[in-house]
C-alpha cells in the first residue's frame, strides 16, 4: 500500500482587508499555512519568512524524525523574524501563526502555533485536531464563557502564542495516516466566519479543489472580514500522487496553482520571486482637442470628488482614533495609557499620551515598568493592548498587569523572622485579579508584599491583524 496526498489550496484577501497577509504552501509532503499579523506589510513578511523556512521539508526523501524536522524549521523561521526586526525596528511587533503537516507514508507530523486550525474527516467524523492558542479559548476551556459568547467576544483576536521572533514552544504531535482521511487546514478567516455545522457539510464535497473553492465562497458570504486561506488534502492509496506544489497568498504571485518546479530549492525560491511584470501598454491614438478638454474636465471633477471623500474619511478616521485607548510602552519603559491606536501614517502618530502607570493626581513612587512584567505580559504591552475606554485601560493596569510584576526584593522565608517595626505598618492591598487570573497567596510572606509568581499568562495581541 502506497499512501500519498491529493491536495488543493486557495487564498483570498477577503472583502475588507486591503492586502493578503496569509501565506500557504501545499506539496507532496508538506502542507503549511501561516496567518500574518502586525499591520502594514509586517504581517505578510512574517508569514512569508516562516513558510519559506518550511518549504525545503517538501523533499522526496522522508526521514523518521518528523517532529525534529518540523521543530528545526519553525525555529529557523522564528529566528529569521528576529533578525529582520533587529535590522528594521519598524517591523517590531510583526508575527504569524503556523499550522503545518509533514507527511511520510503512514505517519504525519503536525506543528501548531496560534489560532489557525487543522481538522480531520475520518469515517464520517469531522473534528478539530489542533488547539487554539488564544485568550478566548482559555476562557472557553475553563467554562467561564459559552461557545456562543466566544464567537462574539471582544478579545477573541488575542493570542497566547505566535511566532514573533521571541522564544516560543510550538505544539508538536505525530498522527497515523489512513487511506480515506481528509485534512482541512485553514486560517481564522474561515473558522471565524463559518459555523462548524456548515464546515462539516462543505468538507464532504469529493473533489479537493471544488471543496476548497466552496470554503472560500462560504467565508466571503459570511462577511469576509479577514483574509481566508484553505488547504484540502486527501490521503489516497495510489502508486503516484501529485508533485506540483501550490504557493499562495502573500507567499505567491497571485496564482495559487502555479507550478514552481519539483526541487526543494526551486520551491523555496518561488516564495520570494517578484510577481510577473505586466506588458507595457500600446500607445494610444491622438485624441481630438475637444475630447481632451472634456476628459480634463471629467478628471478635475473626479479629483474634486476624491478630495471630498478623503476629507470625510479623514474626519471619520480622526473620530474613530480618538475614541480608542490602548496600554503600551512609554518613555523609560513605563507602562502607560495612550489615546488612539498604535502606529502612524506618513510619520504622524495615531495616538497621544493619556496617563502613566500611576493613577492621575496621585504621588507615584513606584512606576510600573515593562521590564517588571513576565514575558507574555511584556510582549502584550509592547504590541499594544487595545481597550474600549480609559476606565478599561486604567483597570487593566491596576488589576491585571500589577499581578505580573517581578518582586525581586522579597524577604526570605523558612523560619527567618523580620524585626518588628517600631511604628505599625498598614498592610498593602494587592489588587484583585480579573476573571480567570489567580491571585498570589500571601501565606509565609512579609506583610504587605506578594512574593509568588502568578500562574496566569497575559494575552498578546494577534490574530488576523
UniProtKB/TrEMBL annotation:
Domain PPM-type phosphatase, first and last residues per copy: 6-235
Database matches in SUPFAM superfamilies: PP2C-like (SSF81606)
PROSITE patterns on file: PPM_2
Entry's transmembrane regions: 299-321
Cofactor: Mn(2+)
Record's keyword terms, sorted: Hydrolase, Manganese, Membrane, Metal-binding, Protein phosphatase, Transmembrane, Transmembrane helix
GO molecular function: metal ion binding; protein serine/threonine phosphatase activity
UniProt-listed Pfam families: PP2C (PF00481)
E.C. number(s) listed in UniProt: 3.1.3.16
Comp. bias (Low complexity): 417-443, 452-465
Ranges where the record places region Disordered: 249-293, 408-465
Recorded catalytic activity of this chain's protein: O-phospho-L-threonyl-[protein] + H2O = L-threonyl-[protein] + phosphate; O-phospho-L-seryl-[protein] + H2O = L-seryl-[protein] + phosphate
PANTHER family: PROTEIN PHOSPHATASE (PTHR47992)
The protein's name in its UniProt record: Serine/threonine protein phosphatase PstP
